[in-house]
Automatic annotation (TrEMBL):
Residues 420-481 form the TonB C-terminal domain. Residues 162-263 form the Peptidase M56 domain. Gene3D superfamilies: 3.30.1150.10. This is Uncharacterized protein. InterPro entries: Beta-lactam_resp_regulator, Peptidase_M56, TonB_C. GO terms for biological process: transmembrane transport. Keywords: Membrane, Transmembrane, Transmembrane helix. The keyword Transmembrane helix applies. The chain crosses the membrane at residues 6-22, 34-51, 96-119, 274-291. It comes from the Bacteria.
Amino acid sequence: MIHYILQVILFQLLFLVVYDLFLKKETFFNYNRLYLLGTSILSFVIPFLKFEAIQQTIPQEYRVQLPAILIGNSTSEASLATSVMLDEVVVQQPTFSWTTIVLLLYGLGVLFSIVVFALKLRKLYKLKKLATQESFGNYTVATIPNSEAAFTYLKTVFLGAKISEEQKNYILQHELVHVQQRHTLDLLFFELLRIVFWFNPLVYITQIKLQVLHEYTADRIVASKDKAEYYQSLLQEVFRTTTVSFINTFYKSSIIKNRIVMLQKTNSKKIVQLKYLLIIPAVCAMLFYTSCSNEKSEELSEEANLTMQTDSEVMQKINELSEAIMKKGSISDEEAKALKFLATEANEGDKIYTSVQEYLDDTQKSLLSMKDLTKVPTYPGCSGSNEELKKCMAQGIATFVMENFNQDISKDSKISGKQRIVVMFEIDKNGAVVHPKAKAAHASLEQEAIRVVSKLPKMIPGEHDGKSVGVQYTLPIIFKINE
């Protein structure tokens, strides 16, 4: 979720930069309105769009969102074996976590924003009740006693009784443009965004820019008949209004100067409309980014930075290697084979290799890709395609480990902080879990991980060319211990 929010803010910022640099000063006000509304929506949608065609144009070593998939022979059996990297399982003791605090703060922010919005509506409807209303077909004029305010909400134009008749005509024409073009709906849309994304300053900034555009549009239409008089009307009035963010107000002193400057500006040439094509490379760049990024891999990389304390130099190197693999997100078949060689204990009668490369050369022919499996192993109760089976398998194993892992082991072993355990096991050609191994900073954690994994239920084995094969899994476990 954090990754999604950061993407939304980044995309909104990029769209606003394009607007400020290339579009803001142009007189295509309706196009600019569509741009601000459209890009605001796109910013929330694009992070969900991931195109496989784009992913395939990137070299594999950079596609960190793909799982590490490895298949090869076991040194102790002649059967075919496949290696799969499972998602990390986080085992955490019940606690009032930072996530809970963040969600609580977010909820309070949403509640506060709703209250503020409700108070604005209450203030507006109190004014409407106080005002004298007169209907004119598709709009209503509400005259506010003892006031110089002038603004529009939906189909109602609010005018202060103190406004002179000479100025009232111009102001009414101006406000009717807001009614006809339904500008209030734009602002209400951003009010909803401000409630849900109250912490995002770019939502507020975009709403302000849209309000300014609304004023430019109305100014241009009304002043097209007699600009000089309209300028004077703008300058002579006392700039007073009610402070509600989702109304279109005539009197807003902070932008009056800009409105006059924009009125004096000649219409932009049609050729300038080509600037709007800049949105195409911007959107393409965003789609390229979202298609080649993966929230899960970012989280795994963060967890991979955990340091395991050990006196063993070999264990330290193993930790460094494990972190490097997690950061990379995937490993080649050859790298996987080398890792398997290092992790395999020699049995009596086995050939003794003097180097990793010698082992790789000897076994290279037996190496194949996960996609060559006719059917992947199946966890009890799972069904569907291979992709569905893989997801169901990962979920089933994760749930089983979290439910059966003894969290009290930290008290007995006096372990604290975040502990990572890497478990390796194989689902053999009979569907049984065999050869479980574990690596951790503490022996008690290794023993507990092996105990839990060994209790996994019997599964339906994977198949290759109609024959059952063994599939090797690697399961990282993060054990978070409360201090």
